[in-house]
Specification:
The structure holds 2 protein chains of 2 kinds. Chain A is α/β, with parallel strands linked by helices. In chain A, helix 26 links the parallel strand 15 and strand 16. Chain A starts with 6 loop residues before the first helix and ends in a 6-residue tail after the last helix. Chain A is globular, with a radius of gyration of 28 Å. Helices cover about 50% and strands about 10% of the residues of chain A. Chain B is of the alpha/beta class. Chain B contains 29 helices and 16 strands. Chain B has a 6-stranded parallel β-sheet, with helices on both faces. In chain B, strands 11-16-15-12-14-13 form a 6-stranded parallel β-sheet, sandwiched between helices. Classes of the chains: A alpha/beta, B alpha/beta.
């Protein structure tokens, strides 16, 4: 079916091919649709590889990925859909020989190693941990993983905002809200940041901050780089510019005058990633570099009631007077209060089940949002929905893949197969691994096997060697036979040289565990988790052996040690494409970053301060580490308060603009930890109820 | 419709300024304060973004206040739940810090460790400290004892000493570093203070390492945050223009400072309390003198709520006699200020709550020397008889200590008297935790037959509870014990369809339990919080059980994060601790769901006298009123804080806290007082607290009161001194 476009959209699509346009408008005004149509038009005239589509994060590039996937009818190669980080990495890699030495890398002849979030944290732990042992960071109450991530965050902010990394502590000390005894910790974090940077130079490592810095300082000024841009990126699309960092805007500022065409798209009411460094006001400055400005005002989908509700709620957040008579909110809003947390979750699941049963809404048109999505919350909701035969998925997978039973199982076998590593397999590990490996093995018999046939000093003994016939009968000969096969495989492996861990696991899985008669024979999901594990180990092996010259066998030991010490925090399960017929369970911010509208939203935990506050981290501050921060000024409580108010208002408006039919707000008196919270969003809803009650003669929402 | 009495009127017409209210037991202070809160919410002066802040002592009072204020607001045709906030002090402190964690040096995912985790941490720290300081133990062990044989008692004492020290230090806003600085300035060594400092320092370090704070930190940090951040303080002052504080007699120094700061010099603050009911004083940081001093301040309007319709006149008269006797005739001069006016007055004629009528012999002081078990038996028998005759009546047996409660429970169980425990953690918490612990215990060691039986019986009890009998349990035991291969009962190698039989039999129950265990065995491979949630969703139906299980899951999840090496047996142990009454679970207990004695008619409620505060029953037993549980600073009285294995029977807790107080005040004279002086002083404090506890116990009774005592474990105790006075008074009255 051919799409119809509004007049504004038509204007955008039909812009001359050499124009640089700045398109702004609220969510739902069809900006991205117009951009896609324009992209199609441009691709009719130029090869795909001449187009750069820049987005602040991968999820915001989805419409473009989908377009490319579904429209293979373009000339030449694919357009590049990149984030600033991806672009910087690509360029730095390409021009490495020209810049490595002047950038300060110790071994410019060797290629750089680009650090992922996990490997960057791993490196940071090597800087921070010895200092912590000496008593540094004593004044701050914080988990160690958060120390690593906050120091890395400071480095990243310095790079994307454009200040020197030795200014971090001095800036952060301008925060009047900080606990005074934290000052030494800021200096210590500063020292760690500098050490980390030296560490990167010494080992040719590039974390995100260094990628950005090297790109801007050394790569971008190269004539070759400009030439490359002229050849490959003469046509630019830059969507959601308000969600991107100043460095991305800087790049556009410099490239726009030289490129052939550009379309920059901004939602002035958005800016949800400001805590992550996004800078909407800086984005707006790009308007002046464009030769055309277009404003899209029409919104397609919102119900009038929803708009009225949004206005009413916003006035409550701001403590401003509402309209004299408030509209009837019942068609668009349901407020429910529960005593206990699980009651509330069951209430959500029941409501959704009812909606789907009545066929009033499809599962894919429903989202459940909370400010933070704890593992417990996500897991419970998934279970409750599953019990009602409703599919759901999450934008934040609940479990690290390392927590997956299948992953734990193969790691236990890895330790069992390598007694020389001196890593003990506990009774429980073996028992759980056997239950995974031998189909239908129950917990009692698995326990008997572990007790009878295993000791950490001797490993797995032979079933045939069990002298007690009654015990053999209890374990059963069927399982005994399978155990013998496992033992035989392990013995054969032990008779040869050890393999790197990832290769060992590939063989174990392929030759034994996935064979018919064993537990992973037809378990594709478990297989996918093991594949993810093998990939992670492989990249860890490459990282450690390339960077630190560690031998390949030791990298496996180091991987398991790191995992068991809880140092690989952010490796979650990979997920394929989001299912269409499933309810989305997500943190509110993550849903906004999907940038799509749904029929119904459920807001949970509205008493939580998470709707209002920034992620408060003692060793960093997104406001002070901004570009418009004036050195020498201070950050006061009132500024912080107002920023939070502003943030909540943006968030609420953004969500409501993406809600087409009905909002369900479920609050709970006792939260999941057993305490009551009364954050500003709950208070705003209470004010709204009070106003409705007062103006509508005692009628509650 | 609320019809105020004299005194109550003055309170509910309060609009601004500072007011101090001394309220006698049963004077309706909660009701009055709730009404005041509702009136203030309804007033035009309160802006949309403002709230009346009500601060109470315990969680039960939070629910109680919330529902009462809500009720009054409905009467005023206003929306309940809006315009006021009811919090315990810890809850309030949490709100303050949680809103601005950076000001306290925390990130917004900071953890508050529960009592069990705090205790586990402290135990580890104490253990390490003890090993490193054998000289300390040797120096303080009694000469006739062998220190090496006193491992457990010394560990328990050190934990208790450290707990008090840390609480007190936090109340004085002292960090370990500040204590170190002060200690370094002293010329002589102070081993007790060094011990306190050493453990406190290591404990705080352990908390920081885990990104956690404990409950005491909350208040200390909240105060510090407000002192350091004027703008934030101003915003909170605007948000909470009036503070209503209940149970102010139990306020600690830091609590008073925090509320005083929040209120401001010209702010509005109403404090209600009864100095005669200050029973949390000894070795807590509560200071009843603070309320007395507040009541006497010039800028405070004092009000007495002296009318009470709770008890029969004779019981009121007995309580007033105790008050008067202690002021005028107590043989120990220093204890004469323990209780004070106002006396309790019966309600005036026409009051909606007239006092219950007196009946002959409604006060019994059982004047017979009984062994502890005889006393328990006597009380249990008497309670059984009374409950049979008064099936609609409410009855409580109040004990001075948890351990005594357990002995009474044993007797009640033997006599098959229906009873309900209100001891440390609630029964609901313990039941849910116990069931989960039994099930996880099975999965931890499934080949142990005992674990299998426990799990099966727990499942049966939760799922079929009322429909099953002891006979069923017995048969299930026989079935499991008779099997050579119990795994075949639970996980048969040839699958057997579960029949749809509806008749409840041992076989059917066993099959159902087996089906559950079968279903859950895959869940046990998940992370512990998810394991617990999966099992719970399948096992429990009651909202409160589910909520408890959810909390337990989150708790175990945090424990797993803190202790990555933990396996199922460790989690079971944690649940056992909760189930076994050793730890209270913050956020959930009967305390939190609001205990209402009137909903437990016809059963004997067992409670400590401390926990009974604020509650009332038709008939109340006060047991163990002897000179051990209620000493009066007389020769021959013994004190549980003076340990038998400690040199010179020193009360080390008292000695330590006295030294800490002297250190805070830089009072070198106090610091150099001879050893033993603080032990003596503590006897007076303890005697005073126990006297007030007796007063609280008496005033729990509506119609009938029975007081008994026992001769103690060694047979050398006698009736408490105040009990003798009460008995003589009663005999005199009867003679008259």
């Amino acid at each position: 079916m051919a799409l119809t476009y509004t007049e504004t959209q038509q204007n955008v699509i039909q812009l001359p091919l050499d124009s640089r346009a700045f398109l702004e408008g609220p969510a739902g005004s069809g900006k991205t649709s117009a951009a896609l149509a324009r992209l199609e038009r441009i691709l009719q005239h130029v090869p795909g590889h001449e187009v750069l589509i820049l987005v602040p994060q991968r999820s915001l590039g989805k419409p473009y990925y989908d377009y490319v996937k579904n429209n293979p009818d373009y000339r030449g190669s694919l357009p590049s859909i990149l984030t600033l980080g991806g672009l910087a990495q690509r360029m730095t890699n390409l021009f490495w020989p020209l810049v490595a030495e002047q950038a300060g890398f110790r071994d410019p002849v060797r290629l750089p190693y680009f650090l992922s979030l996990e490997t960057a944290q791993y490196c940071m732990s090597r800087i921070v941990d010895p200092k912590r042992e000496q008593g540094l960071f004593n004044s701050v109450t914080i988990e160690k993983n958060r120390i690593y991530s906050q120091i890395l965050d400071n480095l990243n902010k310095a790079a994307v905002v454009g200040f020197a990394i030795d200014e971090i502590a001095a800036r952060l000390k301008a925060d009047l809200n900080l606990e005074p005894s934290l000052a030494p910790a800021l200096d210590q974090a500063q020292a760690c940041a500098l050490d980390f940077r030296r560490f990167c130079f010494d080992y040719n490592l590039m974390d995100y901050s260094l990628q950005i810095e090297v790109f801007f300082k050394h790569v971008w000024p190269l004539p070759h780089c400009r030439k490359y841009f002229e050849t490959f990126y003469p046509h630019v699309f830059f969507d959601n510019i308000e969600e991107d960092v100043p460095a991305a805007h800087d790049l556009m500022q410099a490239w726009l005058p030289e490129c052939k065409s550009a379309l920059l798209i901004m939602d002035r009411q958005a800016g949800y990633r400001t805590f992550l460094g996004a800078d909407p006001s800086n984005a707006e400055a790009l308007k002046s570099v464009c030769d055309r400005q277009i404003i899209a005002q029409d919104t397609f989908k919102s119900l009038t009631g929803m708009v009225d509700f949004q206005i009413a709620l916003t006035s409550c957040i701001r403590h401003e007077p509402s309209a004299a008579i408030l509209p009837d909110l019942n068609p668009v809003l349901t407020l429910k209060d529960f005593h206990f947390y699980p009651e509330m979750l069951a209430g959500v699941a029941d409501e959704i089940a009812g909606m789907i049963k009545n066929a009033s809404v499809q599962a894919g048109e429903i989202v459940i949002l909370a400010p933070y999505l704890s593992d417990a919350l996500k897991f419970s909701l998934e279970q409750l929905l599953q019990n009602r035969n409703i599919h759901s998925y999450s934008s934040r997978p609940s479990r690290m893949y390392l927590d997956e039973p299948a992953v734990k199982c193969v790691l236990a076998f890895a330790k069992l197969a390598h007694p020389q590593w001196e890593m003990t397999v506990s009774h429980f590990e073996l028992r759980d691994a056997l239950m995974q490996t031998l189909p239908n093995l129950d917990v009692i018999r698995a326990d008997l096997i572990a007790q009878t046939l295993y000791a950490p000093s001797t490993g797995l003994k032979s079933f045939d060697g069990v002298t007690n016939p009654q015990m053999q009968a209890r374990i059963t000969f069927a399982f005994g036979e399978k155990l013998e096969q496992i033992r035989a495989w392990l013995q054969t492996y032990a008779s040869k040289d050890a393999l790197p861990l990832d290769i060992f696991l590939s063989r174990l899985f392929g030759e034994l565990l996935s064979q018919k008669g064993f537990g992973f024979f037809d378990r594709y999901e478990a297989g996918a988790h093991i594949a993810q594990l093998i990939n992670a180990i492989k990249s860890f092996r490459q990282f450690l052996s390339v960077v630190f010259g560690m031998d390949e066998i030791s990298t496996g030991i180091e991987f398991i040690r790191t995992v068991e010490a809880g140092l690989l925090p952010s490796a979650f399960l990979n997920r394929d494409e989001a299912p269409r017929d499933a309810v989305l369970i997500a943190p509110a911010h993550a849903f906004l970053m999907e940038n799509r509208a749904v029929a119904c939203q459920f807001w949970l935990d509205i008493g939580s301060l998470g709707w209002w506050e920034r992620l408060n981290q003692p060793l960093t501050n997104p406001y002070i580490l901004r570009r418009d921060w004036q050195p020498g000024t201070v950050w006061s409580y009132n500024q912080d308060f107002n920023a939070n108010q502003e943030h909540m208002q943006r968030l609420v408006s953004g969500l409501l603009q993406r809600c087409e039919k009905h909002l369900y707000v479920y609050s709970v008196q006792t939260n999941e930890r057993g305490s009551e919270q009364r954050g500003p969003l709950l208070q705003a809803f209470q004010t709204l109820r009070k106003r409705v009650f007062a103006t509508q003669g005692g009628k509650d929402v | 419709m609320f019809k105020p009495r004299p005194g109550q009127n003055e309170v509910i017409n309060y609009r601004s300024g500072k007011m101090g209210i001394a309220a006698v037991p049963g004077s309706g202070k909660t009701h009055t304060l709730s009404h005041l809160a509702a009136r203030l919410v309804a007033s035009q002066d309160l802006a949309e973004d403002q709230e009346i802040l009500i601060v109470t002592l315990v969680n039960s009072a939070v629910d109680n206040f919330s529902s009462r204020v809500a009720g009054f607001l409905r009467e005023f045709n206003l929306l309940p739940g809006i315009g006021y906030r009811v919090r315990t002090l810890h809850g309030l402190a949490y709100d303050i810090i949680r809103e601005e964690p950076a000001m306290a040096g925390l990130d917004n995912h900071f953890t508050i460790i529960d009592e069990s985790a705090a205790s586990a941490t402290l135990n580890q720290v104490v253990d390490a400290w003890k090993r490193a300081h054998p000289d300390f133990i040797r120096a303080y062990t009694a000469e006739n004892q062998v220190p090496e044989q006193l491992g457990k008692p010394w560990n328990e004492l050190l934990v208790s000493l450290a707990t008090s020290f840390i609480k007190q230090a936090k109340d004085y806003e002292l960090t370990p570093e500040m204590i170190r600085t002060r200690l370094d300035k002293l010329k002589e060594p102070y081993p007790l203070l060094e011990m306190g400092f050493g453990i406190y320092g290591a404990y705080q370090q352990a908390l920081k390492y885990r990104g956690a704070v404990d409950f005491e930190d909350l208040i200390r940090l909240a105060y510090k945050v407000l002192v350091n951040n004027r703008d934030y303080l101003e915003r909170l002052r605007r948000r909470w223009p009036v503070i209503l504080e209940d149970e102010a007699q139990d306020s600690s120094m830091i609590q008073e400072k925090l509320l005083s700061l929040l209120c401001g010099d010209d702010g509005n603050w109403v404090r209600v309390g009864d100095p005669n009911q200050a029973i949390f004083e000894t070795f807590t940081t509560a200071e009843p003198r603070l309320l007395r001093e507040f009541l006497e301040r010039e800028d405070v309007t004092p009000v007495d709520l002296k009318y009470s319709g709770r008890s029969a006149r004779s019981i009121i008269e007995l309580a007033n006699f105790l008050n008067r006797w202690s002021q005028q005739d107590h043989p120990v001069e220093e204890l004469r200020g323990t209780l004070s006016e106002p006396y309790i007055h019966p309600t005036p004629p026409g009051d909606p709550q007239p006092n219950p009528p007196d009946t002959p012999g409604n006060i019994i002081i059982f004047d017979k020397k009984l062994q502890p078990d005889e006393e328990s038996k006597t009380v249990a028998n008497s309670a059984r008889k009374w409950l049979t005759e008064n099936p609609q009546g409410t009855l409580a047996i109040l004990v001075p200590r948890n351990a005594r409660g357990a002995e009474v429970v044993e007797q009640l169980t033997a006599l098959k008297v229906p009873f309900l425990e209100m001891l440390r953690s609630s029964k609901a918490t313990r039941d849910a935790a116990q069931a989960l612990s039994d099930i996880l215990g099975f999965f931890a060691h499934p080949s142990a037959r005992k674990n299998l039986l426990n799990a099966v019986l727990s499942i049966v009890s939760v799922k079929y509870g009322k429909a099953t009998s002891e006979e069923h349990a017995k048969e299930i035991r026989q079935l499991v014990n008779a099997s050579d291969q119990p795994e075949n009962l639970i996980f048969p190698t040839i699958s057997e369809a579960i029949s749809g039989e509806k008749e409840i039999s041992a076989e059917m129950l066993l099959k159902q339990a087996a089906a559950c265990l079968n279903q859950w065995q895959q869940a046990v491979l998940l992370p512990i919080d998810q394991t617990v949630m999966t099992i719970s969703m399948n096992l429990f139906n009651e909202p409160v059980d589910l909520a408890l299980a959810y909390k337990l899951a989150v708790l175990l999840g945090s424990a797993a994060a803190l202790n990555p090496e933990w396996r199922l047996p460790d989690f079971c142990r944690e649940l056992e601790e909760i189930a076994g009454n050793r730890y209270r679970l913050y956020g959930f207990s009967d305390e939190d769901t609001g205990f209402d004695p009137d909903t437990h008619k016809g059963v004997a409620v067992i409670s400590t006298m401390h926990k009974a505060k604020g509650l009332e029953w038709d008939r109340v037993y006060l047991v163990s009123v002897n000179n051990y549980d209620f000493p009066s600073a007389q020769n021959g009285d013994s004190y549980m804080s003076e340990k038998w294995f400690v040199r010179g029977h020193l009360n080390l807790e008292a000695e330590l806290i006295a030294q800490l107080k002297a250190l805070v005040k830089n009072d070198m004279v106090a610091l150099k007082l001879p050893e033993g002086q603080a032990t003596q002083d503590a006897r007076l404090d303890y005697a005073a607290e126990r006297l007030r506890l007796l007063y609280v116990g008496i005033t729990r009774a509506r119609r009938e009161l029975v007081i008994t005592y026992n001769t103690g474990q060694r047979g050398d105790c006698h009736e408490a001194l105040p009990l003798t006075a009460l008995k003589d008074h009663l005999e005199q009255n009867n003679a008259d």
